[in-house]
């Protein structure tokens, strides 16, 4: 074994996350690929093939999946609230398990990042406050402006909590090993957390204690539904993705993770810095944040193989989730073992379309034959 392959051993130490045992520390990050069946947002055998190709990952965190039609913000993303969606996801979990992998589902409510054409009854999207997301989403006609959302009434919040709870149970019924609550990237829970998008004056807005109230209620309900040892959460303390931001992200997320500690989650998955961008924003010290987190810390955002080896070996992180590298390299784990070159991702096929740019990236073995 070369020196380089010996140092890569840090990536290959198994890891227990609550009730989930991961065979290595190279996780697959959730990636929107917009390839659910157009009728009913149902996963198919094509999605099963894609995920099974990546089953060497210690843990696959499957793509953001809406918990209700109200939680939907883009065309062709999958759901987990109908019997057909549960059956479709069962194809995926069976294929991943048959290939020796572990897989959890990311539970998603988009809040204001949506459009009436995607909403039940053509209604306005909902959010903590009627503060607009000044950008676009896409429906089946192409890119469309997101309208100013309608602020949720307090009496509507229990229904959304219930949708998360049911979605978590549905995920278990579909064969997932657990779930990851999406509390990042400017979607509904992040909109509640951060003060740019949450201007409420009731008990769900204002102070940090108030802004964490709804997200914590969601996570607690999901834990109650399926057991906290099968529940993780994804947070993005500093991201501006989705036009969110906070006046004091360090204080907000110190408080949030302290409160999450009481729930005894299986893992906390942290996007360090700007989603898909700079890791050096300076507002949050991620090594300090990690020390506050009482459970497994899964790091994400722009890690290379070498950065992951160093961070795990230093004890700063327990595992690293890779997004785009996993998209373009079904055998990323083997490539990392060998220190091999990676395939280049094709941006044009990230969202929507067919098997091209989805299940046809070559493995090292195939590349060697061609
Ligand atoms: C997206 O669909 O672009 C998307 C979904 C979930 C994320 C980030 C981006 O967390």
Write up what this structure looks like.
The chain is of the alpha/beta class and 370 residues long. The chain has a single domain, classed as Aldolase class I (TIM Barrel, Alpha-Beta Barrel). Helix content is 32%, strand content 16%. The strands form four sheets. An eight-stranded parallel beta sheet has the order 3-14-13-12-11-10-5-4. Strands 1-2 form a two-stranded antiparallel sheet. The longest helix is centred in the middle third of the chain and has 17 residues. Bound molecules: P-hydroxybenzoic acid. P-hydroxybenzoic acid binds next to loops.
Topology overview:
Elements (H helix, E strand, L loop, with lengths): L2 H5 L7 E3 L2 E3 L3 E3 L16 H9 L6 E7 L16 H16 L4 E6 L17 E2 L8 E4 L2 E4 L4 E2 L5 H17 L4 E6 L4 H6 L14 H4 L1 H14 L4 E5 L13 H13 L5 E5 L14 H7 L3 E5 L4 H9 L5 E4 L1 H5 L3 H7 L25 H6 L1
Parallel strand pairs: 3-14, 4-5, 5-10, 6-9, 10-11, 11-12, 12-13, 13-14
Antiparallel strand pairs: 1-2, 7-8
Helix pairs in contact: 2-3, 4-7
Bound molecules: P-hydroxybenzoic acid.
């Amino acid at each position: 074994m070369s020196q380089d392959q010996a140092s890569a051993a840090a990536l290959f130490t198994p890891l227990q996350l609550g009730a989930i045992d991961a065979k290595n520390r190279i996780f697959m990050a959730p990636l929107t690929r917009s390839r659910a069946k157009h009728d009913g947002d149902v996963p198919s055998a094509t999605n099963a093939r894609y995920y099974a190709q990546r089953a060497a990952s210690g843990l696959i965190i499957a793509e953001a999946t809406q918990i209700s039609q109200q939680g939907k913000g883009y065309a062709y993303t999958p759901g987990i609230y109908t019997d057909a969606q549960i059956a479709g996801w069962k194809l995926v979990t069976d294929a991943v398990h048959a290939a020796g992998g572990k897989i959890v589902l990311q539970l998603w409510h988009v809040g204001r990042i949506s459009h009436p054409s995607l909403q039940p009854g053509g209604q306005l999207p909902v959010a903590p406050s009627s503060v607009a997301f000044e950008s676009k989403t896409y429906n089946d006609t192409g890119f469309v402006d997101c309208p100013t959302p309608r602020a949720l009434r307090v009496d509507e919040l229990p229904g959304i909590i219930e949708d998360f709870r049911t979605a978590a149970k549905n995920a278990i019924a579909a064969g997932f090993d657990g779930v990851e609550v999406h509390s990042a990237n400017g979607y509904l829970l992040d909109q509640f957390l951060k003060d740019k998008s949450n201007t409420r004056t009731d008990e769900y807005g204002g102070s940090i204690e108030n802004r964490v109230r709804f997200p914590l209620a969601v996570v607690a309900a999901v834990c109650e539904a399926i057991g906290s040892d099968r529940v993780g959460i994804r947070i993005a303390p500093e991201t501006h993705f989705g036009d969110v931001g906070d006046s004091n992200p360090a204080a907000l997320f110190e408080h949030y993770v302290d409160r999450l500690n009481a729930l005894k989650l299986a893992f906390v998955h942290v996007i360090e810095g700007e989603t898909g961008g700079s890791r050096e924003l300076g507002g949050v010290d991620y090594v300090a944040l990690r020390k506050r987190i009482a459970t497994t810390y899964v790091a994400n955002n722009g890690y290379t193989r070498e950065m992951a080896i160093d961070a795990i070996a230093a004890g700063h992180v327990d595992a690293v989730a890779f997004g785009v590298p996993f998209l373009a390299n079904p055998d990323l784990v083997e490539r990392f073992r060998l220190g091999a070159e990676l395939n280049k991702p094709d941006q044009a096929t990230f969202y929507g379309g067919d098997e091209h740019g989805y299940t046809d990236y070559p493995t090292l073995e195939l590349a060697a034959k061609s």
